[in-house]
Design brief:
This protein is about 20% helix and about 55% strand. About 5% of the residues have low confidence. The protein is rod-shaped and about 165 Å long. The strands form 2 sheets. It has a 38-stranded mixed β-sheet that branches. The longest helix is centred in the N-terminal third of the chain and has 24 residues. It has a domain of about 140 residues. The protein has about 725 residues and is an alpha+beta fold. Helix 4 runs antiparallel to helix 5 and helix 9 runs antiparallel to helix 10.
Length: about 725
């Protein structure tokens, strides 16, 4: 009996064991559980329907669970369907014995599904407008996902669901300008958190890599964070405009070659607005070329069409309204130099600090007549900020080169770089004419004081004369200020020095409204400049015992010697009437006059002009300026050998038109002497022999003047009248 019972137990054990092994390895198939799984799917949406084949049942004896799995499943919603790889679930063995056959979880694995088809399917279920936007942007891509769901005792889905999978060959077109393609990534979605990794994409054919991307839902917004890297990529001018719009072309960006590592985070609201963007980037800039609108050729005379930044290491930190950029590298202007910079934008204020070390490039500051010497190093330090109105404030600007130093402290400028005010300027440098300049300009309340041992004003005078001719008349300081001046030695040019220059200048709205400056040459001859403004009338005077330092600046006059100069000008509104007088000077060469004398067959005087020179007792010019034209009422010059009277007009840079009379002194004396009684008194009995005078015309563009000459036998009354006036005066 015992043997029968033992054998029976052994048989039952083997049958149960075999059954368990069979059910845990091979399992059985049935369709009796299809309805229960379908009902669980309908808990997600009542219109969802699942097409199940037979369900495979496997026992997990160690966990006391029964695994259910169905392959080749279709998920349907109103004639739209998604092909699934499988649906799996499990129930406890204990619940089977209690006749409580309840599904507690559901695992769904999809086949490779087109992303557009998946979005369309989800739209049909949820009718979310965001999915409509996504459907418009997404052009291509495939998705494979594993979805894990858990149900509570009431059959509802718990919020601890998980979705894992990957996307391949994705493509998105965003606003036509941005083409995202070759998108590959893996993802994990847990309740309100999405993680993306191994993210690869191509933006307009440029490859980028993302890692550690996390998206978290927080009430009515989504929080994004992650890393974005790119290997070396090149973006040319056309691609820059495609990415950032055609307006970017005004900045002249031609080419960018770079690679970078970036950490980012931001928020997107439920209305697709980006907020709280934070970026920390380390950029290796191999090449950055830009051109146009540089306006630096006056500082860098060898400047080419493009400036290139190479081998720059840049760190960029952006946090909401704040931006911080630190970088350094090579800067190629015409030769290679180094630059280091720091830019901090906080709220609407931009702080900047820059150091430029120039080894090879040529640097000029024309208004100071300064040029960097060859084979020397120049360091430029700039520290300041730009405010909300676009104005600039430089705490310091320092140029250092061997024994040369230019220091500017606390200077403020408008957005078009017109100087408003500054605290201090120290100049101690050897200029382009090898002359030392050593002066200081210090702010005194609203005014300024200039003090110095030595200053070369040669270039400054040239610039002032050129500015006046071009009707630009711009001075550095826009606000109304008084400048008190006292300089021991001032060079008018390399050979002419004046001493103890003193006085003042008052500037108002870019114009000199009052001035009184005096100085002396080495032989105690003086020079004086004054400006007075009353009732919109400005009177300017300039007297110099030495005329040569001023007259020699006009290139068409050569060989000018001796003489004194007296200038008087009255300006009303936009019209200026002036008188220029020069006394007792000698002129050695004047090309136009030499040609005129030659055409008039006055060869002896022409030879004298080009040889020893012709002396004049007095030169007087009365003229008026209005806009871009000059009207010459009269030019009269008288001397022992020749006298000239002329008038006409000049359109600046366009046309010269002059006519006049030229008479050798012998003919002049004979003419005046022939006047009864008056001629004997003024000239005397001796008249001598000579030739008749000539009339002439000079007309044409400034660089292509044509001269015509006609002999005259009778001098004009105007010529005789002016000659008599001068003779009487003398």
């Amino acid at each position: 009996m015992k043997k029968i019972i033992f054998r029976t137990l052994i048989s039952i054990f083997f049958i149960i064991s075999a059954s368990v092994i069979y059910l845990s390895t091979i399992g059985i198939k049935t369709n009796k559980l299809n309805d229960q799984i379908s009902n669980k799917i309908k808990n997600i949406n009542e219109n969802l329907d699942v097409e199940l084949k037979d369900i495979s049942i496997l026992i997990d004896p160690f966990r006391f669970k029964i695994n259910l799995k169905s392959l080749g499943v279709n998920l349907n919603y109103k004639n739209k369907f998604i092909e699934l790889e499988s649906i799996q679930s499990e129930i406890s063995i204990k619940s089977v014995f209690k006749n409580q056959f309840i599904l507690t979880d559901l695992d769904i694995s999809t086949k490779s599904v087109e992303i557009k088809k998946m979005i369309s399917f989800l739209r049909a279920i949820t009718n979310n407008p965001k999915l409509y936007i996504a459907e418009k942007f997404v052009k291509r891509g495939f998705l494979i996902a594993d979805i894990s769901l858990e149900f509570d005792n009431n059959g509802n889905i718990k919020k601890n669901y998980e979705i894992k999978g990957f996307v391949k060959e994705g493509k998105i077109n965003f606003l036509k300008r941005y083409d995202f393609s070759q998108i590959d990534f893996t993802f994990e979605f847990f309740k309100d958190e999405l993680k993306l990794d191994d993210f690869k994409l191509s933006l307009n054919d440029k490859k980028f890599f993302l890692s550690g991307v996390k998206v978290t839902k927080d009430t009515n917004k989504f929080l994004f964070s992650g890393n974005l890297d790119n290997k070396l990529i090149k973006i040319d001018e056309k691609e820059i405009q495609e990415l950032f719009g055609s307006n970017i072309s005004e900045y002249g960006f031609d080419e960018i070659n770079f690679k970078s590592k970036n950490q980012f985070s931001f928020e997107i609201t439920n209305k697709f607005k980006i907020r709280n963007l934070k970026i920390n980037s380390n950029i290796k800039l191999d090449n950055f070329i830009f051109s146009r609108n540089l306006n630096l050729d006056k500082i860098f005379p060898q400047l080419e069409d493009k400036i290139t930044f190479t081998n720059h290491e840049i760190n960029v930190i952006y946090d909401r309204k704040n931006l911080k950029i630190n970088g350094s590298g090579n800067i190629l202007i015409s030769n290679k130099d180094r630059i280091k910079y720091s830019i901090i934008k906080k709220d609407k204020k931009i702080n900047f600090q820059t150091t430029i070390k120039i080894f090879e490039n040529l640097v000029e500051l024309d208004f100071l007549n300064y040029q960097k010497k060859e084979n020397s190093n120049l360091e430029i330090n700039i520290n300041g900020y730009k405010n909300i109105k676009g104005n600039y404030f430089f705490e310091k600007i320092i140029l250092s080169e061997k024994d040369n130093k230019i220091f500017i402290q606390n200077i403020s400028m408008t957005k078009d770089f017109a100087i408003r005010k500054f605290k201090k300027v120290d100049l101690d440098y050897l200029d382009d004419e090898n002359l030392r300049n050593k002066i200081s300009i210090v702010q005194n309340n609203k005014d300024y004081i200039i003090r110095g041992d030595i200053f070369n004003a040669n270039k400054l005078i040239d610039n002032l004369l050129e500015t006046k001719n071009k009707k630009q008349n711009k001075y550095p300081i826009k606000e109304s200020v008084k400048i008190d001046i006292k300089i021991k030695e001032t060079y008018l040019d390399k050979l002419n020095v004046i001493y103890d220059l003193g006085g003042y200048i008052i500037l108002d709205n870019n114009d000199v409204v009052e001035a009184n400056l005096e100085s002396k040459f080495s032989n105690n001859k003086n020079i004086k400049f004054t400006v007075q403004t009353k009732q919109n009338q400005k009177i300017t005077t300039l007297f110099s015992s030495k005329a040569k330092p001023l007259v020699k600046r006009y290139k068409f006059i050569k060989g000018f010697n001796e003489g004194s100069l007296d200038f008087y000008s009255v300006k009303n509104d936009n019209e200026t009437e002036s008188t220029l007088k020069i006394y007792d000077f000698k002129l050695k060469e004047l090309p136009a006059l030499t040609k005129l004398l030659t055409l008039a067959s006055l060869q002896g005087i022409a030879d004298l002009l080009s040889g020893e020179g012709i002396r004049f007792n007095e030169f007087e010019m009365n003229f008026s300026n209005s806009n871009q034209s000059m009207k010459i009422d009269e030019i009269y010059a008288i001397g022992p050998a020749i006298s000239i009277l002329m008038s006409g007009y000049i359109e600046l840079g366009k046309l010269v038109s002059l006519r006049g009379t030229l008479v050798p002194a012998t003919t002049l004396n004979k003419t005046i002497g022939s006047i009864p009684i008056l001629g004997d008194i003024l000239v005397g009995k001796k008249t001598g022999e000579g030739v008749f005078g000539v009339s002439f015309k000079i007309k044409g563009p400034p660089k292509k003047l044509e001269t015509s000459v006609n002999p005259i036998k009778t001098l004009t009354p105007r010529f005789i009248t002016r000659t008599l006036e001068k003779i009487k005066k003398n």
